[in-house]
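Q: Here's a chain of 248 amino acids. Please give me its 3D structure as tokens.
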Amino acid sequence: METIGQFFYRLNEDYGINFPVFYDAWEFWRFAEGIVTTLELSVICVVMSLVVGLVGSWLQGAAFAPIRWLVYAYIQFFRNTPPLAQLYFFYFGLGSIMPRVVNDMGVPQAILGNYEWAVISLTLFAGAFNIEIFRSGIEAVPTTTVEAARALGYSRLKSYIHVIFPLAIRICMPGLTNNLVNLLKTTAIAYAIGVSEVLYVANQIWAVEFNVPEMMNLVLITYLIIVSSFVRLTTVVSRRMRVPGFNW
């Protein structure tokens, strides 16, 4: 590590190519915390958006029509508006009318902070697409398979959990992977409301060091590693879930 630090220090001294995160311990840990925040935000939003997708796709088949209309309206709202506008709507719109609580220092503060609003906004954004992806997978399950489950005495919920969904998830894995990859990349917009994720931290560093090109390249490489690792993980999961003789 010391050799790497000396190399990047000399690179800055001799050629003006400045990567302080590799030779300055303070900047290194600040950038590392930004990466951790990005990873935490990504994992939480991915898991919660999958839950929203599962529940929403099940509610789309509800017998009570207003529930189906509500799910349809939710999908249309989040699919047809930009994610950054949605984030601003939640943080500045809803956040400004939410009740406040008094903290330990006697100062009123919002119930939800910028991180929590980023989680909510990104989860609902990706969840709307996940509902449609799961719906396409459910509709691709052969009708005879569903009828066989019902004939064996499964209720609608149990046939969904034990028969339909396990097949549907295999069918929709390619589309689901694309949407979750898009979600990982979209977490960068949390920068706009001050969440200290990797892009926000890079901005803080280049504001002091005046090294915008170097930090932007570092941010791009960081996202490339994160997204590539996630794609690799989903590829392994897809192979393990493959059912012999069942093509998708």
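Q: Can you summarize the key feature?
A: The longest strand covers residues 100-102.
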